[in-house]
Design brief:
With 108 residues, this protein is an all-alpha fold. It has one domain (26-107). 66% of the residues lie in helices and 0% in strands. It has helices at residues 12-23, 27-52, 75-107. Helix 2 (27-52) runs antiparallel to helix 3. The longest helix has 33 residues, at 75-107. The protein starts with 11 loop residues before the first helix and ends with a helix.
Length: 108
């Protein structure tokens, strides 16, 4: 290793810039991640109930149709529910990111 390739200590300004970048979270990434978790959760829960079958399939889950117009405990309804749940989850994730970044910015 040459002397010019050795790590040099960073100064205070560089350390603060690095800390600022490392403390910040990606709001869009959080939105997509939480949206996918909620969307896929509803999609799989709906399809699990459909496959399981029975006399009155998913009567409690069907109540989500009140909040998500077009949602029902059917395969097409699971796709509609995925979209609604993804949008809700995306909003929740973005909100978490904005609040966290705001608090992290204040803490510096």
């Amino acid at each position: 290793m040459h002397a010019t390739q050795m790590a040099r200590p960073i100064d205070r300004d560089q350390e603060q810039a690095l800390r600022r970048v490392m403390l910040r979270i990606n709001e869009q990434g959080w939105g997509i991640a939480i949206g996918m978790v909620l969307g896929l959760g509803l999609f799989f829960a709906t399809n699990f109930l459909i496959v399981r079958g029975g006399e009155d399939v998913g009567k409690h889950l069907a109540l989500l149709g009140v909040y998500f117009p077009g949602y029902s405990v059917t395969f097409v309804g699971s796709l509609v529910g995925f979209v609604y749940a993804f949008v809700v989850g995306y909003g929740i994730g973005r909100t978490i990111g904005v609040v966290y970044n705001g608090l992290a910015h204040r803490a510096r």
